[in-house]
Amino acid sequence: MSSADKNLSVFTTNGLPDISAKKFAIIVAEWNSEVTEKLFEGAYQTLTQYGASSENIERGNVPGSFELTLGAQWFAERADIDAVIALGVVIQGETKHNDYINHAVAQGITNVSLKTGKPVIFGVLTPNNMEQALDRAGGIHGNKGDEAAMTAIKMLGLQEMVLKGQV
Ligand code: RBF
User: Fold this and answer.
1) What per-residue confidence (pLDDT) applies to 1?
2) Which of 40, 67, 73, 115 has its CA 20 to 30 Å from the CA of residue 107?
3) Measured between alpha carbons, how far is 125 from 160 in angstroms, rounded to an integer?
4) Of these residues, 97, 114, 128, 162, which one is catalytic?
5) Residues near 109 by Cβ (< 8 Å), separated by ≥ 6?
6) What CATH number is attached to the domain comprising 153?
7) What percent of the chain has pLDDT over 90?
8) Domain for residue 141, yes or no?
9) Total number of domains in the chain
10) Edge-to-edge strand list for the sheet holding 120-125
11) Catalytic site residue 103?
Protein backbone atom coordinates (compact mmCIF):
# COMPACT_ATOMS: atom_id res chain seq x y z
CA MET A 1 0.00 0.00 0.00
CA SER A 2 1.39 3.42 -0.87
CA SER A 3 1.63 5.93 1.94
CA ALA A 4 -0.93 8.13 0.14
CA ASP A 5 -3.53 5.34 0.43
CA LYS A 6 -2.71 4.32 3.98
CA ASN A 7 -5.31 4.89 6.65
CA LEU A 8 -3.35 5.80 9.74
CA SER A 9 -6.07 4.52 12.05
CA VAL A 10 -6.16 1.00 10.64
CA PHE A 11 -3.62 -1.41 12.10
CA THR A 12 -3.16 -5.00 13.18
CA THR A 13 -3.76 -5.51 16.87
CA ASN A 14 -2.90 -9.14 17.48
CA GLY A 15 -0.58 -9.90 20.38
CA LEU A 16 -0.57 -6.44 21.92
CA PRO A 17 1.01 -6.22 25.38
CA ASP A 18 -0.81 -5.42 28.61
CA ILE A 19 -0.22 -1.68 29.01
CA SER A 20 -2.46 -1.12 32.03
CA ALA A 21 0.57 -0.33 34.23
CA LYS A 22 2.62 1.47 31.57
CA LYS A 23 3.18 5.19 31.80
CA PHE A 24 3.09 7.40 28.72
CA ALA A 25 4.01 10.99 27.94
CA ILE A 26 2.46 12.78 24.98
CA ILE A 27 4.21 15.95 23.88
CA VAL A 28 2.22 18.30 21.69
CA ALA A 29 3.58 21.13 19.54
CA GLU A 30 1.41 24.26 19.71
CA TRP A 31 2.29 25.36 16.17
CA ASN A 32 -0.67 24.37 13.89
CA SER A 33 -2.63 23.56 17.04
CA GLU A 34 -5.90 23.02 15.15
CA VAL A 35 -4.21 19.89 13.81
CA THR A 36 -1.99 18.89 16.73
CA GLU A 37 -4.96 18.92 19.12
CA LYS A 38 -6.63 16.33 16.90
CA LEU A 39 -3.42 14.28 16.90
CA PHE A 40 -3.43 14.43 20.69
CA GLU A 41 -7.06 13.32 20.88
CA GLY A 42 -6.28 10.37 18.60
CA ALA A 43 -3.19 9.32 20.55
CA TYR A 44 -4.92 9.63 23.92
CA GLN A 45 -7.99 7.76 22.74
CA THR A 46 -5.95 4.93 21.21
CA LEU A 47 -3.84 4.50 24.35
CA THR A 48 -6.91 4.24 26.58
CA GLN A 49 -8.80 2.05 24.09
CA TYR A 50 -5.98 -0.50 24.16
CA GLY A 51 -5.62 -0.56 27.93
CA ALA A 52 -3.68 2.43 29.23
CA SER A 53 -5.13 4.04 32.30
CA SER A 54 -5.86 7.75 31.94
CA GLU A 55 -3.90 8.60 35.10
CA ASN A 56 -0.86 7.02 33.43
CA ILE A 57 -0.91 9.45 30.51
CA GLU A 58 0.83 12.79 30.96
CA ARG A 59 0.79 15.67 28.52
CA GLY A 60 3.39 18.33 27.87
CA ASN A 61 3.15 21.21 25.40
CA VAL A 62 6.04 22.73 23.46
CA PRO A 63 5.87 25.86 21.28
CA GLY A 64 6.83 24.22 17.96
CA SER A 65 7.96 20.90 16.56
CA PHE A 66 11.60 21.93 16.90
CA GLU A 67 11.20 21.78 20.69
CA LEU A 68 9.68 18.27 20.65
CA THR A 69 13.12 16.72 20.97
CA LEU A 70 14.10 18.32 24.26
CA GLY A 71 10.60 17.91 25.62
CA ALA A 72 10.78 14.23 24.72
CA GLN A 73 14.15 13.88 26.41
CA TRP A 74 12.93 15.41 29.67
CA PHE A 75 10.09 12.91 29.82
CA ALA A 76 12.09 9.92 28.56
CA GLU A 77 14.77 10.49 31.21
CA ARG A 78 12.20 10.06 33.95
CA ALA A 79 12.42 6.54 35.38
CA ASP A 80 8.65 6.13 35.63
CA ILE A 81 7.90 6.96 31.98
CA ASP A 82 7.82 3.92 29.66
CA ALA A 83 7.18 5.56 26.30
CA VAL A 84 6.98 9.04 24.79
CA ILE A 85 4.87 10.18 21.84
CA ALA A 86 5.89 13.42 20.13
CA LEU A 87 3.19 15.12 18.04
CA GLY A 88 3.64 17.98 15.61
CA VAL A 89 2.77 19.28 12.14
CA VAL A 90 5.31 20.89 9.86
CA ILE A 91 3.72 22.11 6.65
CA GLN A 92 6.15 21.77 3.77
CA GLY A 93 6.42 24.24 0.97
CA GLU A 94 5.42 27.27 3.02
CA THR A 95 9.01 27.93 3.99
CA LYS A 96 12.38 26.26 3.65
CA HIS A 97 12.33 26.22 7.42
CA ASN A 98 10.47 22.91 7.25
CA ASP A 99 13.56 21.09 5.96
CA TYR A 100 15.57 22.12 8.98
CA ILE A 101 12.78 21.39 11.43
CA ASN A 102 11.85 17.99 9.98
CA HIS A 103 15.39 16.71 9.79
CA ALA A 104 16.35 18.06 13.20
CA VAL A 105 13.29 16.58 14.88
CA ALA A 106 13.55 13.18 13.16
CA GLN A 107 17.22 12.94 14.11
CA GLY A 108 16.63 14.32 17.59
CA ILE A 109 13.79 11.93 18.40
CA THR A 110 15.91 9.01 17.20
CA ASN A 111 18.77 10.14 19.41
CA VAL A 112 16.55 10.43 22.49
CA SER A 113 15.10 7.00 21.86
CA LEU A 114 18.52 5.37 21.50
CA LYS A 115 20.01 7.29 24.43
CA THR A 116 17.22 6.35 26.84
CA GLY A 117 16.42 2.91 25.41
CA LYS A 118 12.71 3.79 25.39
CA PRO A 119 10.21 4.10 22.57
CA VAL A 120 10.09 7.76 21.56
CA ILE A 121 7.66 7.99 18.71
CA PHE A 122 7.91 10.41 15.79
CA GLY A 123 4.30 11.50 15.45
CA VAL A 124 5.04 14.44 13.20
CA LEU A 125 3.04 15.09 10.06
CA THR A 126 4.99 16.65 7.17
CA PRO A 127 2.23 17.42 4.64
CA ASN A 128 2.38 19.82 1.70
CA ASN A 129 -0.59 21.86 2.90
CA MET A 130 -3.19 22.22 5.63
CA GLU A 131 -5.76 20.08 3.78
CA GLN A 132 -3.37 17.12 3.71
CA ALA A 133 -2.66 17.69 7.39
CA LEU A 134 -6.34 17.59 8.32
CA ASP A 135 -6.84 14.48 6.16
CA ARG A 136 -4.32 12.76 8.46
CA ALA A 137 -5.61 14.18 11.73
CA GLY A 138 -8.94 12.39 11.92
CA GLY A 139 -9.89 12.93 8.25
CA ILE A 140 -10.02 10.58 5.26
CA HIS A 141 -6.56 9.14 5.91
CA GLY A 142 -7.18 8.45 9.59
CA ASN A 143 -5.22 9.99 12.43
CA LYS A 144 -1.45 10.07 12.77
CA GLY A 145 -1.98 10.32 16.54
CA ASP A 146 -3.68 6.91 16.53
CA GLU A 147 -0.79 5.43 14.58
CA ALA A 148 1.84 7.00 16.83
CA ALA A 149 0.12 5.63 19.96
CA MET A 150 -0.19 2.16 18.43
CA THR A 151 3.50 2.29 17.49
CA ALA A 152 4.37 3.04 21.12
CA ILE A 153 2.25 0.11 22.30
CA LYS A 154 3.80 -2.28 19.79
CA MET A 155 7.33 -1.20 20.66
CA LEU A 156 6.62 -1.79 24.36
CA GLY A 157 5.38 -5.26 23.40
CA LEU A 158 8.54 -5.99 21.44
CA GLN A 159 10.71 -4.64 24.26
CA GLU A 160 9.00 -6.95 26.74
CA MET A 161 9.49 -9.98 24.49
CA VAL A 162 13.14 -9.17 23.78
CA LEU A 163 13.89 -8.67 27.48
CA LYS A 164 12.24 -12.01 28.28
CA GLY A 165 14.08 -13.72 25.41
CA GLN A 166 10.76 -14.67 23.79
CA VAL A 167 11.41 -13.37 20.30
N1 RBF B 1 6.80 24.65 14.06
C2 RBF B 1 5.96 23.64 13.72
O3 RBF B 1 5.65 22.79 14.56
N4 RBF B 1 5.45 23.56 12.44
C5 RBF B 1 5.77 24.45 11.47
O6 RBF B 1 5.25 24.33 10.35
C7 RBF B 1 6.66 25.51 11.80
N8 RBF B 1 7.02 26.40 10.84
C9 RBF B 1 7.87 27.40 11.18
C10 RBF B 1 8.25 28.35 10.21
C11 RBF B 1 9.11 29.40 10.54
C12 RBF B 1 9.50 30.38 9.49
C13 RBF B 1 9.60 29.50 11.88
C14 RBF B 1 10.54 30.62 12.27
C15 RBF B 1 9.23 28.58 12.83
C16 RBF B 1 8.37 27.53 12.52
N17 RBF B 1 7.99 26.60 13.48
C18 RBF B 1 7.14 25.58 13.14
C19 RBF B 1 8.39 26.77 14.91
C20 RBF B 1 9.64 25.97 15.29
O21 RBF B 1 9.32 24.60 15.46
C22 RBF B 1 10.20 26.54 16.62
O23 RBF B 1 9.18 26.50 17.61
C24 RBF B 1 10.69 27.97 16.49
O25 RBF B 1 11.56 28.09 15.40
C26 RBF B 1 11.41 28.40 17.77
O27 RBF B 1 11.73 29.75 17.68
Assistant:
1) 47
2) 40
3) 28
4) 97
5) 68, 69, 72, 86, 120, 121, 122
6) 3.40.50.960
7) 88
8) yes
9) 1
10) 57-62, 24-29, 83-89, 120-125
11) no
Among protein residues, the one whose CA lies closest to atom 4 of ligand 1: 90
Q: Could you tell which of 40, 101, 109, 125 is best to mutate to test the pocket of ligand 1, judged by most ligand atoms within 8 Å of the CB? A: 101
User: Which residues constitute the domain of residue 150?
Assistant: 24-163
Q: Which residue has the higher pLDDT, 12 or 58?
A: 58
Task: Please indicate, yes or no, if residue 97 is contained in any of the structural domains.
Answer: yes
pTM greater than the 0.90 cutoff? yes
Check pocket membership of 101 for ligand 1, CB cut-off 6 A: yes
Contact 133, 108 (CB under 8 A): no
**How far does the chain reach from its first CA to its final CA, in angstroms?**
27
Statement: residue 18 has pLDDT above 70? yes
Whether residue 39 lies inside any domain: the answer is yes
Nearest protein CA to atom 15 of ligand 1, as residue? 97
Would you say residue 4 has pLDDT above 70?
A: no
pLDDT digits (tens, 9 = 90+) for 126-157: 999 999 999 999 999 999 999 999 999 999 99
Nearest CA to ligand 1 atom 12: 97
CA–centroid distance, residue 162 to ligand 1 (Å):
38
The predicted structure's pLDDT at residue 44: 98
Residue 2 domain-assigned (yes or no): no
Cβ 70 under 6 angstroms from ligand 1 = no
